[in-house]
Design brief:
single chain, about 300 residues, alpha/beta, Aminopeptidase, seven-stranded mixed beta sheet, two-stranded antiparallel ribbon, about 30% helix
């Protein structure tokens, strides 16, 4: 791993087709599993059109990126998981939002009636197209047009969720159930604000609505057994992906896992620390435990 990864910039050519995600499948001989892993916020491609419209530099604009989360889970296919990873940065288009969660103050023209303007995420500046990075810094130096938003939704959000829905359907057809784990990282400041004063991981299951309690308990037990402090649903109960796909009664279980960045990342230099290797290894232990669980118990 390189200690520092600069922004990967896409060309500004509007006709260029850039695959918005990557899918990794289990290798031959891997155990059969209903696991589907997603990393929606680790994308590090920042289109040149966006950088031209932003007044933030490369370091500032990366503060909202779930940096290296895709690498933390890169061994999951060996444990039977299907893995989808977003390539484009979340600040370009956040696939863990409803597609039309848009802030009207960001646009030069009127938004259509179906735009969701008054959600909590929009109010925080973190709609489908973010207004701010995580420290509250404004991203854009100009107003956007709705045509730009629609193009981002059509080229990124829809293909990503078509692919994710397909992976979930594939797992469910093969195993009778699908278990979606949506992987994220949180700033250490957010971890300090979690229930109990500090935590290493937050499990978000929409307060029991998006997955079986058996799944949440197993993940919590495995992580606490490794020495991690685990919180439930505070400050993150699960985003659009968990809420949209989690249907336990229909055999689709969805759990969001937030990892404290201080465990593996120098948040100032944006470089991995020695803790990265330990965390990656521990997560591999979690993958093994998930693969070995009694799926009928769900």
């Amino acid at each position: 791993m390189n200690a520092w990864e600069p922004i990967a910039a896409a060309r500004a050519d509007p006709d260029e087709t850039l695959e918005p995600f990557v899918i990794e499948r289990p290798p031959p001989g891997a155990p059969l599993s209903p696991l589907v892993f997603a990393s929606p916020h680790s994308g590090r491609v920042y289109p040149a059109l966006m950088m031209a419209a932003s007044h933030l530099d490369a370091a500032a604009i990366r503060r909202s990126e779930d940096m290296f989360v895709d690498r933390l889970i890169e061994r999951a296919p060996a444990y039977g998981a299907l893995v989808i990873t977003a390539r484009l940065a979340r600040v370009w288009l956040d696939v863990n939002r409803e597609a039309w969660e848009l802030d009207p103050a960001m646009f030069e023209d009127e938004l259509p009636a179906y735009a969701r303007r008054r959600t909590a995420r929009v109010a925080a500046g973190l709609g489908a197209i973010a207004r701010v990075v995580c420290e509250g810094q404004e991203i854009y130096a100009r107003k956007l047009s709705f045509a730009e938003a629609r193009a981002r939704v059509d080229s990124v959000h829809r293909p990503y969720h078509d692919a994710l829905a397909g992976l979930i359907a594939e797992a469910r057809a093969a195993h009778g159930i699908a278990v979606l784990v949506d992987w994220h990282s949180m700033p250490s400041a957010a971890a300090r604000a979690a229930a109990g004063g500090a935590c290493d991981m937050v499990l978000g299951d929409r307060f029991g609505g998006s997955c079986s309690a058996t799944l949440s308990r197993l993940v919590e037990r495995e992580l606490t057994g490794m020495g991690y402090r685990v919180a439930r649903n505070a400050p993150y109960a699960g985003g659009f992906t968990t809420e949209h796909y989690g249907r336990p009664a229909a055999g689709v279980h969805a759990l969001q896992i937030e990892v404290n960045r201080a465990l593996y990342l120098d948040e100032v230099r944006l470089t991995p620390t020695p803790g990265f290797i330990r965390l990656q290894s521990d997560l591999e232990g979690l993958f093994a435990a998930l693969t070995a669980m009694d799926w009928e118990a769900l």
